[in-house]
Amino acid sequence: AQKITQTQPGMFVQEKEAVTLDCTYDTSDPSYGLFWYKQPSSGEMIFLIYQGSYDQQNATEGRYSLNFQKARKSANLVISASQLGDSAMYFCAMREEYGNKLVFGAGTILRVKS
Amino acid sequence: DAMVIQNPRYQVTQFGKPVTLSCSQTLNHNVMYWYQQKSSQAPKLLFHYYDKDFNNEADTPDNFQSRRPNTSFCFLDIRSPGLGDAAMYLCATSREPRQGGEGQPQHFGDGTRLSIL
Q1: Vertex A31, ends B58 and B37: CA angle to 5°?
Q2: Quick check: A7 and A20 in contact, CB under 8 A?
């Protein structure tokens, strides 16, 4: 069975600094996709970044990058130059090949300090 | 802009009174999902539609039903809401995942916050 683990319930970061949110996963499937979502206090889930298990390079989207270490089964999200608007809950999620379902981690609450 | 729209944003209902939440999409995605999210928890998948094929999660209570009359619309019906059903309900859509493990992201609506009196 798939499992996603986010070990950091909460994180603080100073504005303009970089922060890494941890995510490890467990799957027996050789092919899978990893996703990060942001959920502000208003409740909407915002897709940030995607990494496929066969992708050779780490995914990047603007200030977001994914530190993908396949052997360690980790897919950490790096946010560079943090902004106050980055304060939110962040979820790591995984979907296996041929599957439609996302399995979510428990989430990490990020607070950006000014 | 193409998007996933949930109505209403906030819904209050009485204990035991049926309620329907709606979701529409302009993305023309063939997969639609309903999630329940309780405070400070991860979203929990209730069911999803792959085109017209309904896929129920094993632990979704019978109290929860869904309808998808066409590609654009999907409804969540709660037949007899209990206090434990108070939550945020999120609708999401995606294209069919491509073979080879590459996935299409799920696109979420803004959610409906359901309160039970």
Answers
A1: 40
A2: no
Query: Average pLDDT of chain A?
Result: 93
Alpha-carbon gap, residue A4 to A92, rounded angstroms: 7
To the nearest whole percent, how much of chain A has pLDDT over 90? 78
Q: Which phi and psi (to 5°) does residue A84 adopt?
A: -60, -35
Give how far A105 is from chain B: nearest CA, Å. Answer: 7
Q: Which residues of A touch B100 (CB under 8 A)?
A: 31, 52, 54, 97
CA nearest to A87, candidates A46, A44, A38, A37: A38
Q: What is the pLDDT of residues B72-103, one digit of tens each?
A: 999 999 999 999 999 999 999 988 765 444 56
Q: Is the pLDDT of residue A70 over 80?
A: yes
Quote the DSSP letter at residue B27: S
Portion 39-58 of A in contact with B at CB < 8 A? 42-47, 50, 52-54
Hey, is the C-beta of A101 within 8 angstroms of any chain B C-beta? Answer: yes
Within 8 A by CB and 6+ apart from B55, the residues are: A100, B47, B48, B49
pLDDT score at B101: 40
Contact B75, B23 (CB under 8 A): yes
Burial of B10 (0-12, 13-18, 19+ CB in 10 A): exposed
In this prediction, what percent of chain B has a pLDDT beyond 70? Answer: 92
